[in-house]
């Protein structure tokens, strides 16, 4: 059966009218049904029940954020933020498009009130938390961003959609469809459970207290010497022996949410520097200080693939549009099993513990219930 998806478009109204028109046009070209403030441009509390019904009936939620926060509800938040909170509460998949350079917007499209600017910044942080967003500068860019983002979202998270009544299958076919839907749900739960436990054969891999020897490059500098002095700074390379659990403790925290591989590598280097600062300083001459450390891309990829093989880490690919080119960016994120493992590694145990093994089992059970 041919489906059409309803997409609720949320934004402030007057300052983003051109942007909304571009988005609506793109959605209709994609055979989607756009819904939004065009139906009720003067939002107020009396219309909120109607707005909620429209969101309830929508398959996806698309939010455009520019430089305005919008009119406030009785709770002190904007109607746009209230719509977003409700869509998230209902479990509707969110596609977020945020202006990349709000300071470049004209005064009429910017928030003048300092309190509202603060609310807008906090709202943008909320929208970006735990999800990938797309950034835009010109209204014309939105068509491509919407087409790319919505297509990927529909493929990854198929929704119920809408179908013409005269194209519905017979009762017998409908019952078969329901049976298949139940089977799909069962398989989804099975897939979810597989990502919540160690993969087959993981026990054969190095992990836990097993050590990994990694080559580090440390850079040292003497601030008392002039910049042109050849002895101003120098690098040193040496091997660091570190356990896989300690490495995972450093990698896991930034990867609780999707993080770029390049940023994850940088944060790993910072964590190693902070943890081994005393030993690193012992390697340099008197008068020099440690300015930073680095590891090779080969070593970082080895660490990443080891944690992927252990079932801790997933690698995600995102395509970013830049003018007429596409750039593929790699992100890393912990699996549910990886999140359990991270809490187990970083949890602080009581000093008086008669049976560490049973305590660890109890912690794991508690973490399973929390997840």
TrEMBL record:
<protein>
    <recommendedName>
        <fullName>DUF4062 domain-containing protein</fullName>
    </recommendedName>
</protein>
<dbReference type="Pfam" id="PF13271">
    <property type="entry name" value="DUF4062"/>
</dbReference>
<dbReference type="InterPro" id="IPR025139">
    <property type="entry name" value="DUF4062"/>
</dbReference>
<feature type="domain" description="DUF4062">
    <location>
        <begin position="6"/>
        <end position="87"/>
    </location>
</feature>
<keyword id="KW-0175">Coiled coil</keyword>
<feature type="coiled-coil region">
    <location>
        <begin position="170"/>
        <end position="197"/>
    </location>
</feature>
